[in-house]
Design goal:
106 residues, alpha/beta, Rossmann fold, 4 strands, globular, ion transport
Length: 106
């Protein structure tokens, strides 16, 4: 009879899937739809602007600034449409600057 020596448990260790724990924050609902389609429910996706709010003249609330700081990835269109995000995204900690992604439409 062959006795298992425990080495088998290490053979499959790299194949174990881990759950993603990132949070994606998009500025507008259309970007939220795109991000949700890409992540397919694996990563939580939230939209910063409430329903009916215009990205052209929106004023951030303190809770919005906190959401920007805590997000793992921020997706926005850019300063031409969402000028209210320019300053808050520039004030993000230097280690997290690369997590704000600007979408360019060709």
């Amino acid at each position: 009879m062959v006795k298992p020596n425990g080495a088998g448990k290490y053979f499959f260790w790299p194949c174990i899937a881990t759950q993603a724990s990132a949070a994606v924050l998009t500025s507008t609902k259309p970007l939220g739809f795109i991000a949700s389609a890409i992540t397919e429910g694996v990563i939580p996706t939230e939209v910063l602007l409430p329903d009916g709010a215009s990205p052209h003249d929106y004023a951030l609330r303190p809770s919005d600034v906190q959401r920007l700081r805590s997000a793992d990835l921020v997706i926005w269109i850019g300063p031409d449409m969402e000028s209210f995000l320019t300053k808050p995204l520039n004030n993000i900690d230097e280690k997290k600057k690369n997590r704000a992604v600007r979408v360019k439409f060709c």
